[in-house]
UniProtKB/TrEMBL annotation:
Residues 1-22 form the signal peptide. GO terms for molecular function: N-acyltransferase activity; phospholipase A1 activity; phospholipase A2 activity. One of its GO terms (cellular component) is cytoplasm. Belongs to the H-rev107 family. It comes from Seriola lalandi dorsalis. The keyword Transferase applies. One of its GO terms (biological process) is N-acylphosphatidylethanolamine metabolic process. Pfam families: LRAT (PF04970). InterPro entries: H-rev107_PLA/AT (IPR051496), LRAT_dom (IPR007053). The lineage of its organism: Eukaryota, Metazoa, Chordata, Craniata, Vertebrata. Keywords: Hydrolase, Lipid metabolism, Signal, Transferase. This is LRAT domain-containing protein. The keyword Transcription regulation does not apply.
């Protein structure tokens, strides 16, 4: 009986460490929608690190990401993908084929993670957010385009400051009955019906 239980535990750990259904590979950028699924306010971004041994990463931790908008200088770290549904979002791969085809691509990702781990600048929506971190780790350059979100409207405009975006974000986080009516979202209507 003990052998059967141990085999089950090893199988579960193997599944966790190799990614959900193997859909992610080391270095993939994963996005997570925040707000309504049909038109999210923004996306959270992380880099999939699989079961690769990186200094400071604990067993079972399979993502590297910005752990939250804080005033701290150490807001980047490892986490667990868990059951949250993410989407592989390597949307800049076509622009960085040289970087992606380098023989030391994995080593460069690990080097960038090591550089940023516990050493991120303070979080800023327009200049130092989770997407900036994820694109830097994968490509070596920082971008924030928020594809397919309301935030993308602000990212594409030169607003100087991003007070309108911050206000909208705060409203979405504080007000369950936000300006976006999620009940009218086709995804929610299908689920309800």
């Amino acid at each position: 009986m003990r052998k059967l239980i141990l085999a089950g535990v090893i199988l579960q750990i193997t599944i966790i460490l190799t990614g959900i259904n193997g859909q992610y590979e080391f270095g993939d950028i994963i996005s997570f929608k925040r707000g309504c699924s049909c038109l999210p306010l923004y996306k959270h971004f992380a880099v999939y690190v699989d079961n690769v041994n990186i200094e400071g990463k604990l067993p079972g931790q399979d993502i590297f990401h910005c752990t939250g908008p804080t005033k701290s200088t150490s807001n980047c770290g490892f986490g667990v993908l868990g059951n949250e549904i993410g989407t592989k979002e390597n949307y800049l791969d076509d622009n960085f084929t040289t970087e992606l085809n380098r023989s030391d691509f994995h080593d460069r990702i690990i080097s960038r993670i090591t550089e940023k781990k516990n050493n991120c600048r303070p979080y800023k929506v327009r200049s130092n957010n989770c997407e900036h971190l994820a694109t830097y780790v994968r490509y070596g350059e920082r971008f924030s385009q928020q594809p397919g979100t309301i935030a993308s409207l602000f990212c594409k405009r030169n607003l100087g400051s991003c007070e309108k975006y911050k206000k909208l974000l705060k409203e979405m986080e504080e007000d369950a009955q936000s300006q976006i009516d999620c009940e009218k979202c086709p995804d929610n209507a299908a689920a309800a019906g």
